[in-house]
Design a protein that fits this description.
Belongs to the PEP-utilizing enzyme family. GO terms for molecular function: kinase activity; metal ion binding; phosphoenolpyruvate-protein phosphotransferase activity. This protein is of the alpha/beta class and 323 residues long. It has 15 helices and eight strands. The two termini are 15 Å apart. The structure holds phosphoenolpyruvate and magnesium ion.
């Protein structure tokens, strides 16, 4: 099987009936680029920048960040690179920020919430990103957006930083897409409104599932409730994709679910545009895509959306695509 997959490295990701989707990779550092190339990644769907900030005693400088972002953008040679701004908090701590202990870190002061308050820290990252933007195809993504005001505030800071750079005579790419992660149910529910203002969505199912099912993604005791194929999750995903398409925007997914063989047929049927996963999942996903038809998966998706449980959906997909 591995030899069969290897042949697909330079192939396009198309379904049996000819529909193209983008199979992209999730990365944490520039060193991960080699794996992306060796596995035929068509882009970076999620660059988790937190790793630049972790395992050290102080914030990374603008120069350090610029170097990493530039390396990733150049390494991808014009292919799309979605960089997520700092998503610290939850399970990822930065001891040197000396943040107070929280009862529920996953529901607390994390990601964009922290960046909108610690704007100095946020602006350094945005400056580094905008300076790097001329070296490739950069898209900027804000994590943990729960309401439109957060998105508007984050985007306003981005535009402010861009103006500052232009005044300093620094060049910045002309058009940079700015999108959000959909990983909080309130944002999925208002996707039609967000779709008018963002350039793209990327669904973060790792968090979207935990917040929708109220089941901590780190807690073994409740892992049975962590149900990716629960129709409640699937309907939310459909809402987001449909809302984006209605406004001529695109939707990706960068949670674990995007590389999962049960989920892929459903997501293809729902019209997902970009699937971002760990690099080693890309070739198996491409191989699966080549064997399934989007039109048939549309019918499957409609069927599973009427079901009630995770188990029913798994059984229906296995039957439909011979897994
Ligand atoms: C997600 O929540 O699905 C996601 C991709 O972000 P992270 O796993 O980094 O929280
Ligand atoms: Mg997340």
């Amino acid at each position: 099987q591995k030899a069969e997959w290897a042949k697909l490295i330079d192939e396009k990701s198309v379904s049996k009936d000819g529909h193209h989707v983008e199979l992209a990779a999730n990365i944490g550092t520039p060193a991960d680029l080699e794996g992306v190339r060796n596995n035929g990644g068509e882009g970076i769907g999620l660059y988790r920048t937190e790793f630049l900030y972790m395992g050290r005693n102080e914030l990374p400088t603008e120069e350090e960040q610029f170097t990493s972002y530039k390396e990733v953008l150049e390494g991808m040679e014009g292919k799309p690179v979605v960089v997520r701004t700092l998503d610290i908090g939850g399970d990822k701590e930065l001891p040197y920020l000396n943040l107070p202990h929280e009862m529920n870190p996953f529901l607390g002061f994390r990601a964009i919430r922290l960046c909108l308050e610690e704007t100095d820290l946020f602006k350094v990252q945005l400056r580094a990103l905008l300076r790097a933007s001329v070296y490739g195809n950069l898209k900027i993504m804000f994590p943990m957006i729960s309401n439109l005001t957060e998105f508007r505030s984050a985007k306003a800071i981005l535009l402010e930083v861009k103006e500052e750079l232009l005044e300093e005579g620094v060049s910045v790419a002309d058009h940079i897409e700015v999108g959000i992660m959909v990983e909080i149910p309130s944002t999925a529910v208002l996707a039609d409104q967000f779709a008018k203002e963002v350039d793209f969505f990327s669904i973060g199912t790792n968090d979207l599932i935990q917040y929708t099912m109220a089941a901590d993604r780190m807690n073994e005791r409740v892992s049975y409730l962590y149900q990716p194929y629960n129709p409640a999750i699937l309907r939310m995903i459909k809402m987001v994709i449909d809302a984006s398409h209605k406004e001529g925007k695109w939707t990706g997914m960068c949670g674990e679910m995007a590389g999962d063989e049960i989920a892929i047929p459903i997501l293809l049927g729902l019209g997902l545009d970009e699937f971002s996963m760990s690099a080693t999942s890309i070739l198996p996903a491409r191989s699966q895509l080549l064997g399934i038809s989007k039109e048939e998966m549309k019918t499957l998706a409609e069927e599973v959306l009427t079901m009630s449980t995770n188990e029913e959906v798994i059984a229906a997909v296995k039957k439909a695509v011979n897994l």
